[in-house]
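Collaborator request log, item 7. Partner lab (contact: R.S.) asked for a structural prediction of ABC-type Co2+ transport system, permease component to inform their binding assays.
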Amino acid sequence: MHVPDGLLPPSTAIAGYAITGGMTWYCLRKIERGNYPSEKIPKASLLTAGFFVASLIHIPIPPASIHLVLNGMMGVTLGYFAFPAVLVGLFFQTVLFQHGGLSTLGVNTAMMGIPALLAYGLFRLLARRSCIRPARAIAAGFWAGSLALALSAAIFCTLVLATLPAEIDAQAERTALWAAAIGYGIQAPIEGAFTAMLVGFLQRVKPELLEDRSAGA
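Returned to partner:
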């Protein structure tokens, strides 16, 4: 799902950096105004490392393979920390493994980070933070994880479809996008199941990690 260098026009890449800059400022402001702003830093660091490593673990689904994105899981567990955590994870994926490009880092961060924040809001809405019940929270985790990946995939396909040069073979372009859409359609429930399992596990061993203490006034 990482958009590489050279695929997008400069105006789109610049717009991606503008959106990512604005969203990062907004999230850091919300974190600063929230209760215990430094409390989640160790957890955010750990999950950022997990987000970084997840891109290296490929699951074979013939004729290709997929890797977990985990942006929904980041939103559910980190709240407003998720967006800057995605930015840091994608930066290291880019410079160390060339997953994506530096010119498209802003676009890639917005593409994965904004759905992470929406997953955070959806999880809180469905689970109702004041009275989280195990089954309800697990179901909320599934939908948050699934829909975050689906939204990121929809943004990716729309960007590629809207910006590919006209000289590229249209049939090949449609075939590639259909293949990508099918792959992401398979991956979305996998991401949802992983997020639901993590929510269920945290509820048993460390339920306070699911508490929402990052929202600002």
